[in-house]
Design brief:
Elements: H1 2-19, H2 30-37, H3 52-55, H4 77-88, H5 100-103, H6 150-159, H7 168-176, H8 182-189, H9 196-208, H10 216-221, H11 230-240, E1 259-261, H12 277-280, E2 288-290, H13 312-320, H14 352-363
Antiparallel strand pairs: 1-2
């Protein structure tokens, strides 16, 4: 009986040890990973698994730096307050019913929770509305990167006939008629004149103010050793190694700010979206879309440029399967525009537990649901 009990303890000890070992080939235990990742020293972290394609410009994940503002549109509290009003003001739309906040609602993670958004006369677009939290860290805007700055981006949805459907000059005229706006323009810009440029700069300034406070991930990698669970730590390690997520979702912004083809182009079908090609007209850009940032990602469902996946687990499972196969057929065989999926997208052979751990880690990137009370708008 005593021998059986000792044998039982030995087996239990082995099982216990296995339960605290990550699935990394190097054989780190979770406690070892906890010590390394929470050390506050990235040089002690296990090396990430990187494809050659990802190495140029690579920067590891970590806490966000302070937001920077462009020289021609520096931060001011008055400008940000004005931008907030304009962001929520439906009088920038042709119907007088749609504002920027209609598709970028603070109550739904600064997106709208829809697969694709409704716009003017209940028309629908073809792409999912990106979340705006931390958007000031982006280098290009829209899924295809067609705008280089937030100031430039502001004009596009206002003038788009499917979205707000009003020429910027008319939107500016609408705002200039509202006398109660004059003092706010005076405080923000030094005079009461309402111009297209001032409207764009004010809204852009407000959008840059939407930044995440430190998340549990940030607390953990800066020294709070107990901020993450074992599952979340294993997910972090998988994110940087076996799951290959780090190849696109790197930098403290959790996006490489590059464009990649994931195999979701639906080329030659009614659902076709050529992505970055629409901007560059380069065949190699067919089906490429900008890498979305992952901070606050659990608040920003559904996912992908077309809102295809309702839950984070769906996304991870599709990556695990290697995404869709796009195979040329018939005339497509000689079609130079036929999309080519990124070579970084491969089957991952993740277990169900590993998928769960990665999802658990991704949820640590959310600080809280970033809500803002809508401002009282000038009336006349």
């Amino acid at each position: 009986m005593k021998e059986r009990y000792i044998a039982f303890l030995a087996v239990a000890g082995v099982l216990c040890l296995l339960s605290y070992t990550s699935n990394d080939p190097a054989g780190y235990t979770v406690e070892e990973l906890r010590t390394l990742y929470s050390s506050g020293d990235q040089s002690k972290w296990p090396a990430p698994h990187l494809f050659d394609e990802a190495k140029e410009g690579f920067q590891d994940i970590g806490p966000l730096p302070k937001m920077s503002f462009p020289e021609d549109n520096p931060y001011s509290e008055d400008k940000t307050e004005l931008g907030k009003m304009l962001f929520f003001d439906p009088r920038l739309s042709g119907s007088g019913q749609i504002s920027c906040a209609s598709c970028h609602n603070p109550e739904t993670g600064w997106s709208d929770g829809s697969r694709v958004s409704f716009g003017h006369n209940r028309q629908t677009g073809t792409r999912n509305a990106p979340a705006l939290v931390n958007i000031g860290y982006a280098k290009t805007l829209f899924w295809d990167g067609r705008s280089a700055t937030l100031e430039e981006q502001v004009k596009a949805p206002i003038e788009n006939p499917v979205e707000m459907n009003l020429h910027m000059s008319m939107a500016t005229k609408n705002i200039s008629k509202i006398k109660e706006y004059k003092p706010f323009f005076l405080k923000a810009f030094g005079n009461e004149d309402v111009t297209e440029e001032k409207i764009a700069k004010a809204i852009a300034a407000f959008e840059r103010s939407l930044t995440s406070p430190p998340s549990r991930f940030d607390q953990f990698v800066t020294g709070k050793k107990d901020a993450l669970t074992d599952s979340e730590i294993n997910g972090l390690h998988l994110f940087r190694t076996k799951a290959n997520c780090i190849n696109c979702h790197n930098t403290p912004y959790f996006s490489d700010r590059k464009f990649h083809n994931l195999g979701l182009t639906y080329y030659g079908t009614p659902y076709e979206d050529l992505g970055r090609y629409i901007v560059t007209h380069k065949n190699e850009d067919v089906g490429k879309f900008k890498t979305p940032a992952l901070r606050e990602v659990s608040e920003n469902k559904p996912y992908m440029h077309n809102g295809l996946f309702p839950e984070l687990a769906n996304v991870v499972m599709m990556y695990n399967a290697g995404m869709l196969k796009e195979i040329p057929r018939g005339e497509q065989i000689n079609d130079h525009k036929f999309p080519r999926k990124s070579a970084m997208i491969k089957k991952l052979n993740l277990t169900d537990d590993e998928v769960f751990d990665i999802v658990a880690f991704l949820k640590t990137l959310s600080s809280y649901q970033y809500k803002v009370r809508p401002p009282e708008l000038p009336k006349s």
